[in-house]
């Protein structure tokens, strides 16, 4: 079938060529809709010719006293043109320069903090949040183009990693919820399973919550296990048909990690940092269709055209910018956020993000559920760990322990005679042999004299059970991280930080700081989130935050690096020390594979978040002991991570075809 592709802002709608005229005649607004949705493309053409700084939003936010953004104004010519050829040559030269300047002004690492940190549902940002958003975008496009009412059936294709680990990650269910008009931020998680079961029972789905069409989940949703779309491992395709079986529209989306959704045309048209999230910021149910459509397009256009007030491309750029302007990394990010939102909105949004993070810790610690979903029968550990901490059993002293290294307590409660000590040691050795616990130490005891035994017994007292470690820092970091990721594994609401699989690291480190170290919690929450966001932006631009591309180094590794930088910042570190902390956090996560057992975000994901949090604090402490100068830079580590992910075999990149996934029995 011949297709005419109409490439739009972030998607492509394909219409059968033979029915194109009829489709246009169906609505007198058809040409207007197409033109309207190509607004960004036209605007970028104008930027190509006239320069980005002529857009009013950019002029409003220039900091003229501190920096100059590139402009392209026509300079008066000193001499009249001698020939038309010369004029054309100079015109082409100016156009090329304008194009270069326009590209440079948008080819930076800056995205919104609230796109890196978004509220969603578990267990995966790339396999749950992203597909849900993609489904919502697709049905919203059908509404905008006035074709939803003509749809009679729909088919869904999931490719690559979305298929291989999709069942364990909840990808099919999330995709179907998106097609029914739900968003990760607001979907009632407790209704998902019953709604999906209803689709199986009735062989129908209600697109955008208003239009019921034929859909058999077992036949019309295909998981392509051994096939990937060329643009990205996490690819999906939606196709709708009319009552005659003719295709009405189709589109391919790619979930690139952290809930970001793009397609090939978007990437080619807008550079490396274009994303599509929060597409339905205006509720259709609370406004007329035209009002919602207009508001949505206005937001799309604004986000696409805005230039960062303080752009940076690399870690070096970021540190140099901070030093030149006398700003912290958090302040740079905050000023950039003012391009999208007011000061009050930025602050309120940041506290809302932390509120969801903190609530996910609370729910994980207080959960009454014993097991996580899935065939692995993994037990929740956060509730018991939290109860142990609150019970106060991790005291600073323990009965029978040494009072101090200089003057050990030698009393063992058995008297002072060497004979009693010797007989007791002999009895213990005999009991050990009878119980089969005949260790190397018991072999040595058989050759010792009574005097030697008396010298040892009072110091190295035998314990009936292992002593509980007195390491509250590790305990609290671990329980917070585990709590979040157990909630994520159960499909609860968490914050992508920067992904769902790594959602526990940043909340754990931040909560630990607030509870034990912070003197100004409100300020520290903002500084922590904005600093970590800046580091996340660098990884998103320089490599990827998708485990399907990078392995787990792109998720827990990045979260560890972000947390290390943020912890160093709230502890008073300089921008150079913060950059150093971020580098250390990633350097020792390089090569980390993503091999979830049975495709579930449980083993090894949950424990890995706990270790990521501990490692982040350690990395920050190391960086704060120096002056910020170091041999390996953050930019070098990010590039190394990118290369490592590129060279990593696909079976170690969120496919469950290697590593622990094939060596740990499911049953």
From TrEMBL:
Sorted UniProt keywords: 4Fe-4S, Gluconeogenesis, Iron, Iron-sulfur, Lyase, Metal-binding
Lineage top rank: taxon: Eukaryota
Keyword Transferase included in the entry's annotation: no
Pfam families: SDH_alpha (PF03313), SDH_beta (PF03315)
Region: Disordered, residue numbers: 69-106
Cofactor annotation: [4Fe-4S] cluster
Classification via InterPro entries: ASB_dom_sf, Fe-S_L-Ser, Fe-S_L-Ser_mono, Ser_deHydtase-like_asu, Ser_deHydtase_bsu
Entry protein name: L-serine ammonia-lyase
Record organism: Coemansia asiatica
Highest classification ranks of the organism: Eukaryota, Fungi, Fungi incertae sedis, Zoopagomycota, Kickxellomycotina
């Amino acid at each position: 079938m011949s297709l005419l592709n109409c490439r739009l802002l972030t998607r492509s709608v394909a219409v059968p060529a033979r029915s194109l005229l009829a489709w246009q005649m169906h609505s007198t607004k058809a040409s207007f809709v197409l033109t309207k949705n190509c607004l960004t493309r036209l605007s970028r053409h104008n930027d190509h010719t006239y320069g980005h700084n002529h857009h009013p939003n950019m002029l409003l936010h220039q900091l003229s006293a501190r920096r100059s953004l590139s402009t392209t104004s026509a300079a008066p010519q000193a001499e009249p043109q001698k020939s038309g050829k010369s004029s054309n040559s100079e015109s082409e030269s100016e156009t090329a320069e304008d194009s270069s300047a326009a590209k440079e002004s948008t080819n930076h690492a800056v995205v919104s903090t609230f796109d890196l940190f978004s509220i969603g549902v578990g267990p995966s940002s790339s396999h749950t949040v992203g597909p849900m958003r993609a489904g919502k975008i697709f049905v919203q496009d059908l509404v905008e183009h006035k074709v939803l009412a003509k749809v009679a059936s729909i088919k869904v294709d999931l490719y690559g990693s979305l298929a291989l680990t999709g069942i364990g990650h909840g990808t099919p269910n999330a995709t179907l919820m998106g097609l029914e008009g739900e968003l990760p931020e607001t979907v009632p998680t407790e209704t998902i399973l019953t709604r999906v079961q209803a689709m199986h029972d009735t062989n129908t789905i209600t697109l955008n919550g208003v239009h019921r069409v034929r859909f058999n989940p077992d036949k019309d949703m295909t998981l392509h296990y051994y096939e990937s779309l060329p643009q990205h491992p996490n690819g999906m395709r939606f196709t709708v048909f009319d009552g005659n079986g003719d295709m009405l529209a189709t589109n391919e989306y790619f979930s690139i990690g952290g809930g970001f959704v793009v397609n090939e045309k978007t990437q080619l048209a807008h550079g490396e940092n274009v994303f599509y999230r929060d597409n339905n910021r205006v509720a259709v149910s609370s406004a007329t269709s035209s009002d919602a459509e207009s508001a949505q397009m206005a937001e799309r256009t604004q986000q696409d055209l805005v230039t960062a007030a303080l752009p940076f491309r690399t870690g070096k750029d970021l540190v140099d910018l901070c030093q030149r302007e006398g700003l912290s990394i958090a302040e740079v990010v905050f000023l950039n956020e003012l391009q999208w939102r007011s000061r009050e909105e930025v602050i309120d949004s940041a506290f809302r993000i932390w509120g969801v993070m903190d609530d996910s810790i609370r729910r994980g610690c207080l959960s009454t559920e014993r097991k996580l979903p899935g065939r692995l029968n993994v037990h929740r550990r956060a509730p018991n760990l939290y109860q142990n901490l609150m019970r106060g059993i991790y005291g600073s002293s323990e009965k029978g322990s040494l009072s101090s290294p200089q003057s050990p307590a030698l009393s063992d409660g058995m008297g002072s005679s060497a004979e009693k000590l010797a007989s007791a040691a002999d009895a213990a050795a005999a009991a050990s042999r009878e119980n089969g616990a005949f260790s190397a130490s018991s072999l040595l005891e058989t050759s010792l004299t009574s005097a030697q035994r008396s010298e040892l017994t009072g110091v190295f007292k035998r314990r009936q059970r292992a002593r509980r470690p007195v390491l509250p820092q590790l305990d609290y970091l671990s329980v917070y991280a585990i709590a979040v990721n157990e909630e994520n594994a159960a499909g609860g609401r968490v914050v992508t930080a920067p992904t769902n699989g790594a959602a526990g690291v940043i909340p754990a480190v931040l909560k630990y700081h607030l509870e034990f170290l912070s003197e100004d919690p409100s300020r520290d929450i903002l500084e922590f989130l904005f600093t970590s966001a800046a580091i996340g932006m660098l990884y998103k631009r320089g490599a990827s935050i998708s485990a399907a591309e990078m392995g787990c180094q792109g998720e827990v590794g990045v979260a560890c690096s972000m947390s290390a930088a943020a912890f160093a910042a709230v502890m008073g570190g300089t921008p150079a020390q913060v950059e150093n902390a971020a580098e250390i956090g990633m350097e020792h996560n390089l090569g980390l594979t993503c091999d979830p057992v049975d495709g579930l975000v449980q083993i090894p994901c949950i424990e890995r978040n706990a270790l990521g949090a501990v490692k982040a604090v350690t990395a920050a402490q190391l960086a704060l002991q120096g002056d910020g100068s170091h041999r390996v830079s953050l930019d070098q580590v990010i590039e190394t991570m990118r290369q490592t992910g590129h060279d990593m075999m696909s079976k170690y990149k969120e496919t469950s075809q290697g590593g622990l996934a094939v060596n740990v029995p499911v049953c």
